[in-house]
Design goal:
This protein has 216 residues and is mainly alpha-helical. The chain has a single domain, classed as Orthogonal Bundle (Fic-like fold). It contains 8 helices and no strands. It has helices at residues 9-37, 44-54, 83-96, 103-117, 124-140, 150-156, 158-173, 180-195. The protein is globular, with a radius of gyration of 16 Å.
């Protein structure tokens, strides 16, 4: 069962909005588990689940690594035959640096690297933002307070987000692992969330456009 955007854009937007709310609810449940299990909670199953929920009924390939090429602006993600290996490297890097990197560093790396690999056919940006928040909260040892959570703030500050992605991509192309721009960008948004007045986040949905052929 797939809803096509061109065929019924109103229904497509509504399904996508509801999916985002369900993904956030799942993310909160994953954070609860992660707070008990630590770095071993970060695995393929987590990533597959967060992606599957984000694209349910709008993509036939949710929760599975892509088996086709994908294009994201000027960025050329790895060949689909290499996705599985890159994802294993990604997960291993997170786990190995769990107690070395700060929560913001870990979240920044996760946000950039998942976008760089672009392992899914659809919903890569939504999945990367959920993963980013998962890493931030679990590594910090608590669900972060604030009225509007980090993934929402990233969507509202896309210019800085895209610039930080490009900076990390450029460093990687030059042979360096440097995501400090992304870390600095996230640090500002995290502080804004903590300083925000209002009730703690309890889940919700925000309309998101398709992310297949645009920067995540």
């Amino acid at each position: 069962m797939i809803v096509l955007e061109d065929e019924d854009p109103e229904l497509y937007d509504r399904v996508q909005e509801q999916n985002l709310g369900r993904q956030y609810s799942l993310m909160l449940n994953c954070i609860e588990i992660g707070l008990k299990q630590g770095p071993r909670s970060f695995d393929r199953s987590l990533l597959w689940s967060l992606n599957h929920v984000a694209v349910a009924n709008i993509s036939a390939f949710g929760g599975r690594f892509r088996q086709e090429p994908i294009y994201v602006g000027d960025h050329k993600p790895p060949h689909f035959n290499e996705v599985g290996d890159w994802m294993d490297r990604f997960i291993s890097t997170v786990q190995e640096n769990w107690y070395i990197w700060t929560p913001t560093e870990l979240a920044a790396y996760g946000l950039w690297r998942l976008n760089w690999i672009h392992p899914f056919v659809e919903g890569n940006g939504r999945t990367a933002r959920a993963v980013c928040y998962f890493l931030l909260c679990v590594r910090s040892g608590a669900l972060q307070p604030g009225k509007r959570i980090l993934p929402e703030r990233i969507r509202d500050a896309r210019d800085g987000y895209e610039q930080a992605l490009i900076a990390a991509d450029t460093a990687w192309d030059a042979g360096h692992l440097d995501f400090t721009d992304m870390e600095d960008y996230l640090a500002v948004l995290v502080q804004a969330q903590i300083d925000d007045e209002g009730l703690p986040y309890e889940g919700g949905a925000v309309d998101q456009p398709s992310e297949n052929n645009q920067p995540s």
